[in-house]
Amino acid sequence: MTPAEEPRFDWRRGGAAAVALFATLVLLGMVVLVAITNSARDKALQAERHAYDVALLTRTADASIARAEAAVGRFALDQNAAISGSRYYAQWRLAGQQISQLERSVSTDAAQRRRVEELKQLFNERGQQFSDVARYSSARQKDYGLRYYYSISLKQGELADTGTRLRAKLVEIAEAERGALSQKIEESQFFSAEADRLTDYLSWLGVIVGLFAIFMGYIAVQALRQNVTARREAENEAERAQVLEQAVRERTQELWEANQALKAEAIERQAAEAQLRQVQKMEAVGQLTGGIAHDFNNMLAVVVGGIDLARRRLDGPRREVMAHLTNAMEGATRAAALTRRLLSFARSEPLLPERLDASILLAGMNELLDRTLGERIKVTTKLAEDAWPVFVDPHQLENAILNLAVNARDAMDGTGKLTIRTHNRKLQANAVGDIRAGEYLVIQVKDTGCGMTAEVRERAFEPFFTTKAVGKGTGLGLSQIFGFAHQSGGEVGIESEVGKGTTVSIYLPRTEAQASNVRTHPAMQAKAEEDMTVPGARLLLVEDDPRVRTATVGALEDLGYEPIACSSGAEALALFDSMEFDLVISDVIMPEMTGPEMVRELKSRRSDVAVLFVTGYVGEGDGDELVGYDLLRKPFTVSTLASAVAGAIARRPTESRPIGGAAAAG
């Protein structure tokens, strides 16, 4: 069977089946219509018979009432009192039965039921009149009874009107049934005609169905012949299909081999791309490591040289020894600042965020900026009065603004105009970098300097990338700002044009946090404070590095404390159970048990103990556990340690017990 012939054969079979189905449905429909028509005709004939019955009942009831009236008259004339009386009562009871039967016959017709009710009322009134005639006649008042009979029989007066209305009501009922009878006769004739017509249609339909059956037989014979031919062609097609299947199998094998070759090539390409990415990654790490090593070597040279010279001149003049130690301390401080910038770039710098009004913070930096930038830089601030609050670390934000101001000063070569502006802005997702959709406070620092080329702008956030001369900068300023903004949930954008200046925008998300939800440690503020101590305070120091632990114990003892030190969280818990402490100073990252885990256990035993965390690095996920506690960054000076310890003890929970020395003094 060829593809062109198969649809033709299906069409014939489908058409024949459709015609057969249609004829069957028409036949069923005609049968149903005939049944419905016959049923309607039977109902019309039944209604016609009912109308005849009602009319007959009205006539027989009228006749019975007339006979009863005649019997009453004969009874009043006393022609034959006994016979007349019995005939009267018999006819009147018969008339009552006929009226009751009439009531049952018209029970389905509301109008006729109402007429029958009126008829019964008139019948009862007429019966009462006849009873009065019979009673008067029986009481030997025949003259009065006869006169009363004439008064109710003759068509004069009110008493005679009851009989007239009774006959009129019977006529009304009969006329109503005659009207319904006429309608039913018309319906009966209509349905009879319809039934006859549908019967004729069925006869013709039977003839058509017979002819169609003959046609279907012819189609079946033709289909049988075509089926035989199709089988022969199918056998031929099967042979050709086998040949084609073999060809397809061979072609599939070729395609599979080609696909395997492509997969192998793809694997090789992926391996080459992975190797290239690894080379690029190692190159970036090498560049980062080289930059860090270069800067740290410079700073360590200052530290090592200063300490070595101080050791050599310990017996010399004190001024010379202090000068070398001061240089060493300055180098160490610069190294600590570099480390902090690296941590900020890596988003591992622990932040102590709080609800902050950036406009107030920026307004308070005017004096610092003027002193840092010099008199030849004009600083202008345009701060929005309705600036949205943000949830950031104030110290980090100050450093970011200060870094941008110093970069702007260098770009303007010490002379120009610096504008700091804030405004609110709603952003769509990815409108600036990888920023998420939402409401942001935008802090812009704009200068009138030399601007950036497109190549410089693309690499501006790379660590250790700088366009400044050697020794003028580390190349970590914008990297630190980039890390701070992303760690705070925001983004940084740069707009620059060569010769016209640069605008750096920091986008910080709007916050709904309340100002009382967080607090920052005074040691985080870039302000020098006088050394403070709390006499009699009991301190527990937990530090796993022995050198850091020794140095911290020495600093605390130099401040007048008598700390108890241990190297792990387990030792700290044992000491905490055996002694009472006012402050726990703990490192954050320690083996076996971290500082936050240890503090949670201590708080479950005694909630009023004060806690001071000391850290140089916060791992992923640990920063959230530090919120709400005082934090001191490594490295730190003795002065910073003193203020941190005093501040942590001062902010201990209100239910804490009084410090031993202070209590004794009080």
From TrEMBL:
<dbReference type="InterPro" id="IPR005467">
    <property type="entry name" value="His_kinase_dom"/>
</dbReference>
<dbReference type="InterPro" id="IPR004358">
    <property type="entry name" value="Sig_transdc_His_kin-like_C"/>
</dbReference>
<dbReference type="InterPro" id="IPR003661">
    <property type="entry name" value="HisK_dim/P_dom"/>
</dbReference>
<dbReference type="GO" id="GO:0005524">
    <property type="term" value="F:ATP binding"/>
</dbReference>
<dbReference type="InterPro" id="IPR001789">
    <property type="entry name" value="Sig_transdc_resp-reg_receiver"/>
</dbReference>
<keyword id="KW-0067">ATP-binding</keyword>
<protein>
    <recommendedName>
        <fullName>histidine kinase</fullName>
        <ecNumber>2.7.13.3</ecNumber>
    </recommendedName>
</protein>
<keyword id="KW-0547">Nucleotide-binding</keyword>
<feature type="domain" description="Histidine kinase">
    <location>
        <begin position="291"/>
        <end position="512"/>
    </location>
</feature>
<feature type="transmembrane region" description="Helical">
    <location>
        <begin position="15"/>
        <end position="36"/>
    </location>
</feature>
<feature type="transmembrane region" description="Helical">
    <location>
        <begin position="201"/>
        <end position="221"/>
    </location>
</feature>
<keyword id="KW-0175">Coiled coil</keyword>
<dbReference type="InterPro" id="IPR036097">
    <property type="entry name" value="HisK_dim/P_sf"/>
</dbReference>
<feature type="coiled-coil region">
    <location>
        <begin position="227"/>
        <end position="282"/>
    </location>
</feature>
<keyword id="KW-0472">Membrane</keyword>
<dbReference type="InterPro" id="IPR036890">
    <property type="entry name" value="HATPase_C_sf"/>
</dbReference>
<dbReference type="Pfam" id="PF02518">
    <property type="entry name" value="HATPase_c"/>
</dbReference>
<feature type="modified residue" description="4-aspartylphosphate">
    <location>
        <position position="587"/>
    </location>
</feature>
<dbReference type="InterPro" id="IPR003594">
    <property type="entry name" value="HATPase_dom"/>
</dbReference>
<keyword id="KW-0812">Transmembrane</keyword>
<keyword id="KW-1133">Transmembrane helix</keyword>
<dbReference type="Pfam" id="PF00072">
    <property type="entry name" value="Response_reg"/>
</dbReference>
<feature type="domain" description="Response regulatory">
    <location>
        <begin position="538"/>
        <end position="649"/>
    </location>
</feature>
<keyword id="KW-0597">Phosphoprotein</keyword>
<dbReference type="InterPro" id="IPR011006">
    <property type="entry name" value="CheY-like_superfamily"/>
</dbReference>
